[in-house]
Amino acid sequence: MSETPAASFGAATHLVCRACGAHATLGADYSCWECFGPLEVAYEFGTVTREQIQAGPLSLWRYAPLLPVPANVAETRTLSPGMTRLQPADNLAKALGITGKLWVKDDSGNPTHSFKDRVVAVAQTAGIQLGFKTLACASTGNLAQAVAAAAARAGQRSVVLVPSNLESHKIQATAAYNGFVIGIDGNYDDVNRLCSELIGEEVSADWGFVNVNLRPYYAEGSKTVGYEIAEQLGWRLPDQVVIPVASGSLLTKIDRGWREFLALGLVEEHNYRVFGAQATGCNPVSTAFADGQDVIRPVKPNTIAKSLAIGNPADGPYALDAVRRTNGAIGDVTDAEVIEGIRLLAETEGIFAETAGGVTVAVTRKLLAQGLLDPTAETVIVNTGEGLKTLDAVSTGDGFTATIAPSVDSVSLVIASGK
Amino acid sequence: MSVSVRIPTILRTYTGGEANVDVEPGEATLGGVIDTLEASYPGIKQRLVSDTGEMRRFINFYINDDDVRFLEGLATPTPDGAQISIVPAVAGG
């Protein structure tokens, strides 16, 4: 697609290959022309101050000077996600044996209830700058909803491609926005591959795939999780952070966001440690970490944590780099432990997380038991989505404690019987 | 013996814009197919295979929908009529 005359990407200057360092101009390219490595947005930031950010809107657009978006982005028709709560989690800390402070960065508070609204907002904005008329994606569910909703708000067409065996309620929640919802016979990696093959085809000539040809911009949206954690802590970095790993992009970008804050002088130097969380049923990055490998060996996913079920995560090597550089670790947990993690977070903090959040809580517990996380340090864990998205995973029976006649005595009996 | 190879947009500069090319490989393996491609489209091999003869890290090869990293890599057999896809890796999410 050709750029519109007024295309603006803020302080972004070009794309750079993370593998070989080759440069490309800001466009709809996602793969290095030299080595196929992933392209990343590069910037020349001027001065960015705390005051400037604090004067901005209560959304991720307060960080617009640090994103590949035009300065007036907050006035455009996006979902304006972000600025989700950073919740102190004293009860969970106690249950986990953490004596340092613990917080949950709860991204279930975004407009479509997952952190995907952030990445879509940035990709959508870049896509419009590049002249794309349709917003598209490959998805395991969360991204589908984020894309369909964002497109509806902007008056764009949306086309989302998902595995046809995706849970029915995720499909229905996406269909509500009345875009194209196309079921593909295959798993997520098959859908992803199809989307790659659609690039350059006639049928999809005006489609901006947020996580394919707009991926360099999309990925930058995840930095805002890191920015917000730092700002909400009072302009400082925590000692430790635990982040779920699917493609590895979120972890990589939170780390990048913090390094940018350090470079801009927005926070003081601090030796933070980055930890990753995977499900054992899809643990290629955790396995590579344990084996001391730099290369990720793909797996065929089999886990209830479907939003993390990427068997061939191209950002995995970069997630490994960030974890190793900061002296962190990556752990994985079974599906049974994931469910325990969801319940623990709900029971202790009133936060009902999707399966990915259960992965994060359960891995946090495991890394503490292994002595890899420091229980005396300040820790932030990231919940990426709302529990209603993966209700099937925790459903037991009909959900009732008891079903009784409408009488005071009956209620008394149930309460006396205990939980 | 012939196989069909799907070329990604990024490599179509080598194939004169062709998205699908038919190849009769000297050796019926993925490596053989790539060598034969190189004979017709000089330069394409070094984009796919490193100097040390390994598949490049950010490229995926599929033979009839199976990722060759789950099979035998460049030594994976390519049966007659196979559909081979070359797809740059995308992180997904």
Provide a compact summary of the structure.
The complex is a heterodimer of chains A (419) and B (93). Chain A is an alpha/beta fold and 419 residues long.
Given the structure, what is the number of helices of chain B? 2
| CATH architecture designation of the largest domain in chain A | 3-Layer(aba) Sandwich
Number of domains of chain A: 2
Q: Could you give the count of β-strands of chain A?
A: 13
Query: Could you say which structural class the secondary elements and strand pairing of chain A correspond to?
Result: alpha/beta
The CATH architecture name of chain B reads Roll
Element pattern of chain A in H and E: EEEHEHEHEHEHEHEHHEHEHHEHHEHH
What is the C-level CATH assignment of chain B? Alpha Beta
Describe the structure in your own words.
The complex is a heterodimer of chains A (419) and B (93). Chain A is α/β, with parallel strands linked by helices and 419 residues long. Chain A folds into 2 domains: 12-75 and 116-218, Rossmann fold; 86-113 and 222-394, Rossmann fold (3-Layer(aba) Sandwich), CATH 3.40.50. Helices cover 36% and strands 15% of the residues of chain A. In chain A, the strands form 3 sheets. In chain A, strands 4-5-13-10-11-12 form a 6-stranded mixed β-sheet, with helices on both faces. In chain A, strands 8-7-6-9 form a 4-stranded parallel β-sheet. The termini of chain A are far apart. The mean pLDDT of chain A is 94. Chain B is of the alpha+beta class and 93 residues long. Chain B has a single domain (3-88), classed as Roll (Ubiquitin-like (UB roll)). In chain B, 17% of the residues lie in helices and 23% in strands. Chain B contains 2 helices and 5 strands; from the N terminus they run E-E-H-H-E-E-E. Chain B has helices at residues 30-40, 44-48; strands at residues 3-6, 20-23, 59-63, 66-67, 83-88. A 5-stranded mixed β-sheet of chain B has the order 2-1-5-3-4, covered by helices on one side. Chain B is globular and about 30 Å long. At the A-B interface, helix 6 and helix 7 of A face strand 3 and strand 5 of B.
